[in-house]
Amino acid sequence: MNRSPFARLKKYYPAYRKSILSGLVFVVLTSALYPTVPLIIKYAVDALGEGGMHPFPFDLLIDFIGAAGSLSRVLAIYAAAIVAVTLVQGVFRFLMRYTITGASRRFERDLRNEIFAHLQRLPAAWYQTAKTGDLMARMTNDINAVRMLMGPGYMYLTSTLVTFVIAVSFMITVSPQLTLYTFVPLILIAVTTRILSREIHRRSERVQRHFSMVSERVQENLSGIRVVKSYCREDSEIERFRDLIRRNMDVNMSLARIQSLFMPLLFSLVVGSHLVVLWDGGRRILAGSLGYGDFIAFNVILGILVWPMVSLGWVVSLHQQGKASMERINAILESEPQASGGEGAVRPPDAPLRGEIEFRGLNFAYNGKAVLQGIDLRIPAGSTVGVVGPVGSGKSTLANLIPRMFEAPEGTLLLDGRPLAEYPLAALRGAVGHVPQDSFLFSDTIRANIAYGAPESSFEAVKRAAEISQISADVEGFPEGYDTLVGERGVMLSGGQKQRVAVARAVLLDPSVLILDDALSAVDTYTEEQILQQLRGFMKGRTTLIIAQRLSTIKDADRIVVLVDGGIEESGSHDQLMERGGIYAEMYRLQLLQAELDHSD
Amino acid sequence: MSDAAQRYHEEETLGKAFDGRLMKRLLVYLRPSLRLVLITVALQFLLTWFELLTIDLGRQAIDDCVALGNLRALNRIALLYALLLVLSFFARYAFIYLTSLTGQRVILTMRLEVFSRLQKFSPAFFDHNPVGRLMTRVTNDVQVLNEMFTSGLVVAVSDITLIIGIMGYLLYRNWQLALITFSILPILFYISFLFKRKVRDAYRMIRIRLARINAYVQENLSGIRVVQLFRRERRNREHFERINQKHTDSNLKSVLYYSVFFPSIEVVNSLAIALIVWFGGLETIAGHFTFGELFAFLLAANKFFRPIRDLSEKYNIMQTAMASSERIFNLLDTREQIVEPSSPETLFEFRDAIRFESVDFQYKSGQPVLTDVSLEVRRGQRVAVVGATGAGKTTLISLLARFYDVQSGRITIDGVDVRRMKLSQLRRLVGVVQQDVFLFAGDVGSNISLWDESIGQEALVQAAESVGIHEFISGLPGAYGAEVAERGASFSTGQRQLLSFARALAYDPQILVLDEATSSVDTETELRIQRALEVLLRGRTSIIIAHRISTIQNADRIIVMHHGRVKEVGDHVSLLEQRGIYFRLHQLQYHQAGLLARRA
Fold first, then answer.
1. Where does B121-154 have alpha helices with state H?
2. Chain B hits for A240, Cβ within 8 Å
3. Which of A163, A231, A273, A509 to probe by mutation at the B interface, max B CB count within 10 Å?
4. Could you give the residue ranges of the DSSP H alpha helices within A445-582?
């Protein structure tokens, strides 16, 4: 890993070449004009003393206007020149800022787009270890840190260098020695900015850590508030919190102690360089080697040089932060997206699938832990299979393997007799309608949610899907009908409604294989029966896989598979399994009892 | 996209930058630090004076030394200048440091106050207020106020002092030229004002659009499975690019404003310098003005532009602070529903009985959870409460510990209404062990003692030994000092149960109320828990929401709850004979146990 973390950004260069180059020109022009105003001030002050002697181009200008005799006019010309130069510089400055900062904002947009697009393609397994909060931070703070470096960071760096060179060359012509003396404090500014900002950064991180400790403590306390109350621990909790925030205050003050140094030090160094000019410059005037004009110009230039010097130290910090951020972003961008499949596919991808599924001695392990073992299961096209079993028996994993949310070992999972990898990923997922356990909905309208996988569908098709999943009556009862917004994650809907929308979403894909992963748990048994009945008609000739806790859901399936600890324990029709008197029969009796109890009063 | 997120952020739309009522309340927090505040103010005046002195020393150096050819005077002034440099370094350092200290003290007090206030709320309050939002009050909102005190208020005051000081100095030196210089101030104010308004609107837009981006990303990451299953990658990317573009557009707008603002300010600044050069030059020639004064004017003009330019920034800080303080004060002003009696009845020892007398309760109106519940638990009895999920069992416990107040009827202990008792006394008397064991970050020992210093190490060990978890704890690295991380993720369900028993035992309540955990554990752990439970219940009055057959069978009395009512009361045998609800519950439990046994 010798490559610079920024190497990835090279590909953006062509798109921004124009902005970067013109921005650079504007930086140079802007910075070059910085020392001009002090120079004019010097001429003006000199004119007060000597009279008549004006440097180029002011001599020509004064002659042209015929102001030679009138000091008032001469001064007016200098004054006007000051404003004129600042105006010209202002235009350059505007162009510089607008070009460079603007480009950095567009670059930020491009980088964010790239990360988002990449995130969309990362496999489900990758997301198992990723934390959403962390990814969000990378998409905001880290992108911003990189942008700050690429835009303002490099702009200030260039500006500082150019200003510096030009200011110094002017100052040297006036007095090399005085320039040297003046620069001692100025260079100290850059050095101390650098040293202090490193230490400030270190302590700020500690402050951040402590701040999260405070947040965590509050969160914990509020989440466990019942325990706190049960044991009357309110006062000791307050005491503990007091200790924590006292320590937090100490940490904050340790940052303040060093952060408070920054401005005073800066001021003192600036004043120090003024002192040098005042004292040594004053002596030189006395000795006759320096004019009043030079003296004043020196002082004004010092004022101009302070901020570039400060920003020099700042840019170094920006570089470090930007580098760390870029590395975090690279960690995302370098993760492998899921292979889109279809290599060596024989069949044209759009030929309809029949939906025959076969597990062939499938073993599946996740994080070194065996989840499924020795699964042999053939699901003929057009049949309905129910999968039941205790929590953690591997039912959901089994279902997730089919649309390749997890990758089954090669050759152990076949669709229509061919390994899954032979189908293009998009074609495969288009053929598999999956209703996941959590029935995740997006904060959009009901219509958009149903049409999520097939956005081009007609409204009629959407309504048809809604009818099959028995949500249409509910939706038509809403004042806004299908345009009802469901809110974040669908909070505006009840659990059962959410599940039915999720079913409609899968149905609208017109899939060859439909998977319901415990997808009707929040729907009452009557409605559930209705949905299943509708699905039976709709899925005729296609395959349905139903995972359920409630046995009534899968009672009528062609075949029922009982999963226990990742293996198939029993399998057969309801009647066969009941006759067998195994786990299934026991589970069934239990649920009957439960139902009986629920209905008594 | 996510309109919830959008609404949330638009809620943050800022209001006034100054609200006298809020400000008055905020300033109260400064009162304990009054001395510090006075010192900082004094330092501020000192610093302004130093600043002016520095400028004037430059003038003196030119007029009184250089112009007169007096080298010794120049040396003396340089020395004075150096002294001033050192002094102002310390004064400035002290000023900034003390300001931070004041700010830190204020937020310490405030944070503690908000936190303490939160401790006093009953669980009902937390049912309505999400933890995340409350956390923001304690953390970010208080932080914002710190910024207001340090970067906003103090800096604004010191900037204003400096501006006035410099203006005064310039007027004193040459009032005509000073007035001429000040003539550009209206332009400066106007530009700053215009800029402030534009930028504020732009920022609001940026915030809203960024919130939209964040909400969209968050949603996509949380629902990534659905995104991929339904092949939305390309469409979602396109949508994202659109909202990202909108955000960029707003950003570019603010870039434009900034790009115009700073150069314009420079031009205005140069106007002032030009005026000084022109009129000052003329005055110098006329002999009304010296080179030194010209020098001082040029320097001073530079110094008072920055503070004026920055004043608009302070406005934004103040605005945010007002919004935060309003939210904080709202929280502090929220009334608690469960109130302590003004003259509580004392009850140190439980002698007779706990009674529920025709208790009705509902969390939400129209959805009764308990209806006409009457029951009695006599001293020394062990009562089991059974019933299906949602029968109202847990609510019984919550009412007894007065987490909520009954809507009608009453609950008494030895004839005293729980609402007439001091809360702390009631909860000392009635120990509640909840179903889901909550472990705190900290060490194992503290999780038993809950930081109660009256529970010594010996009592701790004894409690742990009694419930049979001492050996396990001793085996941990650091034993009782071992860290409990992430809410006890490193402990098994059984171990957590035992820890919570030890906790209850250490507190030794006279009445124990226990919500038995339903989660299944292996046989050995099950036996351990049963043994521990026996120890815990020995010689104690107890009410147990029971799931274990053994617990139920060992109870003196069983109360069967169904749909919020007490349906059957009796002992195990008599209830079975009734062949009612209990009978069915019992069968269910047996079947469940059977299924578990088959799996094992």
1. 123-128, 131-136, 142-147
2. 451
3. A231
4. 446-450, 459-468, 472-477, 495-507, 525-538, 551-554, 574-580
Q: Give per-residue pLDDT as tens, A287-321.
A: 888 888 888 888 888 877 877 777 777 787 788 88
- Whether the CB-CB separation of B433 and B533 falls below 8 Å is answered with no
The ipTM assigned to this model is 0.84
Contact A222 B135 (CB under 8 A): yes
Q: How far is CA A242 from CA A210, A222, B79, B364, in A?
A: 14, 16, 49, 36
* A 569-598 near B (Cβ less than 8 A): 583, 586-587, 589-590, 593-594, 596-598
Assess A258–B contact: CB distance below 8 Å, yes or no. Answer: no
Token match 């995130």: residue? A119
For A256, counting Cβ atoms within 10 Å of its Cβ (0-12 exposed, 13-18 middle, 19+ buried), the class is buried
* Tens place of pLDDT per residue across chain B (600 aa): 333 333 333 344 456 667 788 888 888 888 888 999 899 989 999 999 998 999 899 899 888 888 888 888 899 999 999 999 999 999 999 998 999 999 999 989 999 999 998 888 888 888 777 777 788 888 888 888 888 887 777 788 888 888 999 999 999 999 999 999 999 989 988 888 888 888 888 888 888 888 889 888 988 888 888 888 888 888 899 999 999 999 999 999 999 999 999 899 889 989 999 999 999 988 888 888 888 898 899 888 878 777 877 776 777 778 788 888 888 898 888 888 788 888 888 888 888 889 999 899 988 777 788 888 888 888 888 898 988 777 788 888 889 888 888 888 999 998 888 888 888 888 888 888 887 778 888 888 888 888 888 888 888 888 888 888 888 888 888 888 888 866 666 677 778 888 888 888 888 888 988 887 766 666 677 778 888 888 888 888 989 887 777 778 888 889 988 888 888 888 888 888 888 888 887 777 766 666 655 554
B231 contacts on A by Cβ (under 8 Å): 426, 429-430, 453
A165: Cα within 13 Å, side-chain hemisphere: 9
B485: which DSSP letter? -
Contacts of B524 (CB under 8 A, 6+ apart): none
| Beta bridge pairs of residue A375 | A362
Contact status of A274 with chain B (Cβ, < 8 Å): yes
Q: Which two tokens stand for residue B318?
A: 């103040």
Interface contact A282-B270, CB threshold 8 A? no
Separation CA A189–CA A191 (nearest Å):
5
**A180 is written with which tokens?**
């040297």
Judged by CB atoms closer than 8 Å, whether chains meet at B81 and A279 is answered as yes
Instruction: Copy the structure tokens of residue B207.
Output: 């915030």
Nearest CA in chain B to A218: B135
Instruction: Say if residue B112 is exposed, middle or buried (CB neighbours under 10 Å; 0-12, 13-18, 19+).
Output: middle
Cβ B231–A429 below 8 Å, yes or no? yes
Instruction: Please answer yes or no on whether B139 and A218 come within 8 Å at the CB atom.
Output: yes
Q: Compute the radius of gyration of chain B from its Cα atoms.
A: 36
Cβ-nearest to B104 among A89, A105, A249: A249
* Contacts with B61 from chain A: Cβ below 8 Å: 278-279, 282
Nearest-CA distance from B482 to chain A in Å?
18
Minimal CA separation from B215 to chain A, in Å: 9
Residue of B100, B302, B584 with shortest CB distance to A256: B100
Cis before A390 (ω within 30): no
Parallel/antiparallel/unpaired status of strands B541-545 and B368-378: unpaired
What is the least distance, in Å, from the CA of A2 to any CA of chain B? 32
Q: Nearest-CA distance from B240 to chain A in Å?
A: 7
Contact A231 B507 (CB under 8 A): yes
